[in-house]
């Protein structure tokens, strides 16, 4: 399996339906182009650079707690989609673009409006991914539909905002270095490039825009969904060791996060292109075939995770992890296409959760069980069926 899909190619590589200028982002780029952009982007998400994000994430967590406390003080339950959606939006706006918002308080902020338009455009079009993996030759038809019929209007305001920030940062010259966000880090690559590295390091404005969109799209729903499921799991299992004292040690929290990502992976399926013919458990996949890998099935396979329906954070203790095939935990993918934002996501989730558990305690209620599903694209909460968690303030 590893060798057959090793090159990071996937059917998405040929899904060239992104608007002009956004085609070189990590989701849409193919082969050598993907390799080059990924090489440039990887250091941006290294642990050294992520240290600069702590204070941004702490500030957003403080807003999150304020918003939770307001609900509790009014005697309301916590609408997890609303509070964590707001937190993740704020965290991306700050860490990626240096925009300081409290999106729950300020739904009319231009960034929130542009971002919401982009999200509704993207979530209304997931069908083409699955369709094109199964029938790649439909590409031309889909490209025509997306370009001329749907007109991709959802992209425009968000792209214009990002391009405006790029221009502003460029006009600030060296003064722009005071900004500590991903966009600035990507732009600094251009400034710091050595002539011999020019081909590798310089990103065009369109490419920088592409990466900005990827950071937003890759990081918003995934992180928010995981926080929603994690809180749900903690409410449902109050007997676990997730007290503030336990969390302070962070080990148990790590395990609870991984177990939540296993039970409810934010990405259910990934796609690849078989780079050679391979036979797996008696099924032969010919070279060049598009393959959908159902992450969610592997993560719920009793062969790797006994009693998969049960929330058992201890599965992720060092000892238990060591005795399992490392490829079984696929929540962030595996190999060259491993989620580039994994460290950032885990940092956001951990910082937010330490703040949350310091301030509030989730309470198990009878209506909680059976609230959620893990069908592809199903979130913990939907607009017509919000998950409302009962919580009380800690002293
Ligand atoms: C809990 C949160 C997250 C989960 C569960 C998640 C999951 C995944 C998975 C499974 C993949 C692999 C797709 C594949 O193999 O084809 C992936 C790729 C990716 N993720 Fe994430 N992700 C999360 C957060 C983020 C964040 C915060 C960012 C923002 C930077 C991000 C950006 C990306 C990008 C750019 C890729 C494509 C990488 C490539 O193709 O080289 N993700 N993610």
UniProtKB/TrEMBL annotation:
Classification via PANTHER family: CYTOCHROME P450 FAMILY 3, FATTY-ACID PEROXYGENASE
Q: Taxonomically, which superkingdom?
A: Eukaryota
**What cofactor does this one take?**
heme
MF-aspect GO terms: heme binding; iron ion binding; oxidoreductase activity, acting on paired donors, with incorporation or reduction of molecular oxygen; steroid hydroxylase activity
The parts of the chain that form a coiled coil are none
Homology family:
Belongs to the cytochrome P450 family.
Binding site residues for heme: 339
- InterPro entries, sorted: Cyt_P450 (IPR001128), Cyt_P450_CS (IPR017972), Cyt_P450_E_grp-I (IPR002401), Cyt_P450_sf (IPR036396), Cytochrome_P450_3A (IPR050705)
Keywords in alphabetical order, please: Heme, Iron, Metal-binding, Monooxygenase, Oxidoreductase
Q: What does this protein do?
A: Cytochromes P450 are a group of heme-thiolate monooxygenases. They oxidize a variety of structurally unrelated compounds, including steroids, fatty acids, and xenobiotics.
Name under which the protein is recorded: Cytochrome P450
């Amino acid at each position: 399996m590893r060798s057959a899909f090793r090159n990071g190619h996937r059917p998405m590589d040929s899904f060239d339906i992104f608007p002009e200028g956004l085609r070189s982002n990590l989701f849409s780029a193919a082969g050598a182009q993907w390799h080059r952009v990924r090489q440039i982007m990887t250091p941006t998400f290294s642990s050294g650079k992520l240290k600069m994000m702590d204070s941004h994430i702490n500030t957003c967590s403080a807003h999150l707690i304020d918003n939770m406390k307001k609900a509790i003080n009014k005697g309301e339950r916590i609408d997890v989609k609303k509070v964590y959606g707001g937190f993740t939006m704020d965290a991306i706006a700050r860490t990626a673009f240096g925009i300081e918002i409290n999106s729950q308080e300020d739904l009319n902020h231009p960034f929130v409006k542009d971002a919401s338009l982009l999200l509704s455009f993207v979530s209304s079009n997931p069908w083409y991914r699955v369709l094109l993996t199964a029938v790649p030759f439909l590409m031309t038809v889909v490209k025509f539909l997306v370009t001329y019929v749907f007109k991709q209007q959802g992209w425009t305001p968000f792209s214009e905002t990002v391009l405006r920030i790029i221009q502003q940062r460029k006009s600030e010259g060296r003064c722009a270095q005071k900004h500590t966000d991903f966009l600035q880090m990507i732009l600094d690559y251009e400034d710091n490039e050595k002539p011999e590295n020019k081909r590798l390091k310089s990103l065009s404005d369109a490419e920088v825009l592409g990466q900005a969109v990827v950071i937003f799209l890759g990081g918003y729903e995934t992180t928010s969904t995981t926080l929603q499921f994690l809180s749900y799991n903690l409410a449902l299992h109050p007997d676990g060791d997730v007290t503030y004292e336990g969390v302070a040690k962070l080990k148990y929290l790590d395990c609870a996060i991984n177990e939540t990502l296993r039970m409810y992976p934010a990405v259910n399926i990934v796609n690849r292109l078989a780079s050679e013919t391979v036979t797996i458990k008696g099924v032969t996949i010919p070279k060049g075939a598009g393959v959908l890998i159902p992450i969610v099935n592997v993560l719920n396979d009793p062969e790797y995770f006994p009693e998969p329906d049960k929330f058992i954070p201890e599965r992720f203790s060092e000892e238990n992890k060591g005795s399992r095939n490392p490829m079984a935990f696929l929540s962030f993918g595996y190999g060259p296409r491993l989620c580039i934002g994994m460290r950032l996501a885990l940092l956001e989730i951990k910082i937010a959760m330490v703040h949350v558990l310091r301030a509030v305690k989730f309470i198990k209620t009878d209506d909680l069980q059976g609230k959620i599903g893990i069908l592809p694209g199903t979130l913990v909460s939907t607009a017509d069926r919000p998950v409302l968690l009962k919580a009380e303030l800690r002293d």
